[in-house]
Amino acid sequence: MITLKSRREIDEMKRAGEILVATHKEIKKLIKPGITSWDIEVFTEEFLRKQGATPEQKGFEGYEFATCASINDEICHGFPRKKILNEGDIITVDMVVNFHGALADSAWTYGVGQVSPEAERLMEVTRKSMYLGIEQAQVGNRIGDIGHAIQTYVEAEKLAVVREFIGHGVGPTLHEKPEVPHFGAAGKGPRLKEGMVITIEPMVNTGGWKAKMDDNGWTARTADGSLSAQYEHTIAITKDGPEILTYQGEND
């Protein structure tokens, strides 16, 4: 079932989003060669606690961490670890914030120091593809319009959209209907209605789109060892257009 949120519920989710945004802005300051994704994990949990919020994904289906930290060829659900980040690495930090029962979900890819032109372009295309998808999140459009806009742009840039992991509805629980693929045909899928809240979170690879799973049962990485990036916002569908509940500001 797809739940529709009231204005009050959306405003509460937006407050959770503000805390999530503040967390990402602090994480951006931390990212440099020599730190670890475990440093980011420890910081995030402490920062959220000080804001009166909690990491929703910690304990979700047995997941043990406040963040997902996916490095280089890891697509998503990378475990935070004490391995040093090196100059030129890229890392995606994904988290879900719970503030008094309201949820917000956002992922961001960061370059560690100076990254290669290939990695820089990957991040730029992935981020732009997310916003092209968001532009399609209009009342009366269909879910397929979002994925079609993302896939068309990414493939024109000679990159590949991951198929195995997709966006979703969010609130009152972490993963709700509808499913939001980042590929597919325009005009297909459920129609978007005022009050729906979804994530748009394309994962894009420099090589092929296929993924493989690590032995931990969580972490997905590119099957061919190519780089992967991800950007994600939580979006409310409103009569006035898509409202980004995790918007970071002018340089978002």
UniProtKB/TrEMBL annotation:
Residue numbers binding a divalent metal cation 2: D105, H168, E201, E232
EC main group: hydrolase
GO terms, biological process: proteolysis
Pfam families for the chain: Peptidase_M24 (PF00557)
Cofactor(s) required for function per UniProt: Co(2+); Zn(2+); Mn(2+); Fe(2+)
Cofactor binding note of this UniProt entry: Binds 2 divalent metal cations per subunit. Has a high-affinity and a low affinity metal-binding site. The true nature of the physiological cofactor is under debate. The enzyme is active with cobalt, zinc, manganese or divalent iron ions. Most likely, methionine aminopeptidases function as mononuclear Fe(2+)-metalloproteases under physiological conditions, and the catalytically relevant metal-binding site has been assigned to the histidine-containing high-affinity site.
Protein family per UniProt: Belongs to the peptidase M24A family. Methionine aminopeptidase type 1 subfamily.
UniProt subunit comment: Monomer.
Name by which UniProt lists this protein: Methionine aminopeptidase
Native source species: Listeria rustica
